[in-house]
């Protein structure tokens, strides 16, 4: 055995919810929910189960996934990845608005993508008209394929290639009766079918429960160790633990990847739901426990695998022909209104109609906040001359909640710090008569406090304004009927505020440090 190492949870930090992980040989692959962001369904890779990096996305062609009118926190919910007969399969629910905008009042349908390589490219999504959430693929010993969906563990027989529904939905396990079941998986081990289901809701009562049966549709018994994962300490630094999947490492040891959240200054999950890892032990009576039933760990002994650390994408100078894989657009981008080649070395966005508080807004480019405290910085060349034109830096949760610090024109060229706390935009601070020159913009985030600065040379910085108690940039801070399942991201944007102009904003670089 190699020297013992430890790791800190979460292992995938920031907006990486609803994990599904598989091992193929010595490699591990993870997919996570992406909701209204594009490209859709990040695919991450690890060699040691602890250090991860994004290698691709399941859907990169905007013509294959129309998110243009999708509400915040709708879109792609919990996906699943499996490896069968030399091919990678990704199943994912597409959560629609359910308001008739797609021709009929459909809430959810399932998408299936296939590839020979884990990073893709994946095939054009096949649509399965099953109105449910959180599909996963289960292949029985005889090769029969089933899509497992919530509520609890319902099974949908599939065709031999897994790309078509081949029978009616039927319940395998009905769960324990706790509320809001999701994230079901069925696995088979030592003659038992194990149904693994998240219950209790995706908030602070989240957990994982298990049932087993000798028959897929037989009588299931509940595990005496339920819930096998739940945070019982309301003061612990990791909460909201559930929605998990088991994976066996190359040494034969078992582990569980599961969803979690780190509260920030109270029960405010600003960076979103993340992915944690804990060991699994099979008991003598054929059940399993996660982390010995102690709930999520903060520090844990690492798997006995060679450590493999990947370089993080913390700086983008926009010199490459493509954006690095950390970047996400809010909904489908307008590819005719941004460019990396129009001015080499810069990310250019042309202003369009649609502001940050509108779903129709285009080309807001973001990356995940991964820690509760960080600094982000950019340099923008933008020379507005019409009221409404704006370009700059944003800490973005949704169309209803964000902060933006922008070069703009409002009866003169200015810098403005504006927030939206679900009540429309509010001007917080303003710097008038700024120079006709490139401007550096910076945000320093210290838990719930965010301070915004500007500079003309990148060395001498001046404070624009400070935002205290930013609880609106989180899952829980805006109690209303909107779904809030994502997390805060930080990045750059440009729009024309409705004045109809098409003006270039050139971003020289973007730096993130935590």
Descriptive overview:
The protein has 514 residues and is an all-beta fold. The mean pLDDT is 96. 0% of the residues lie in helices and 46% in strands. The chain has two domains: 6-301, Tachylectin-2, Chain A (5 Propeller); 315-513, Jelly Rolls, CATH 2.60.120. The protein has no helices and 40 strands. Strand 37 (449-455) and strand 38 (462-467) form a beta hairpin. The protein is globular. It starts with 5 loop residues before the first strand and ends with a strand. It has an eight-stranded antiparallel sheet, with no helix packed on it. Strands 26, 28, 29, 31, 36, 37, 38 and 40 form an eight-stranded antiparallel sheet that branches. Strands 7, 8, 9, 10 and 11 form a five-stranded antiparallel sheet that branches.
List the helices and strands and how they pair.
Blueprint (H helix, E strand, L loop, with lengths): L5 E3 L11 E5 L2 E5 L5 E2 L1 E7 L6 E7 L15 E2 L3 E5 L2 E9 L12 E8 L10 E3 L4 E7 L5 E6 L2 E5 L12 E4 L8 E8 L2 E8 L7 E7 L7 E2 L6 E2 L8 E10 L5 E8 L11 E10 L5 E3 L8 E3 L13 E2 L11 E3 L7 E2 L7 E4 L14 E4 L4 E9 L8 E7 L4 E9 L3 E9 L3 E8 L6 E8 L2 E7 L6 E6 L21 E7 L8 E10 L1
Antiparallel strand pairs: 1-25, 2-3, 3-5, 4-27, 5-6, 7-9, 8-9, 9-10, 10-11, 12-13, 13-14, 14-15, 16-17, 17-18, 18-19, 18-20, 21-22, 22-23, 23-24, 26-40, 27-30, 28-29, 29-40, 30-39, 31-36, 31-40, 32-33, 32-39, 33-34, 34-35, 36-37, 37-38
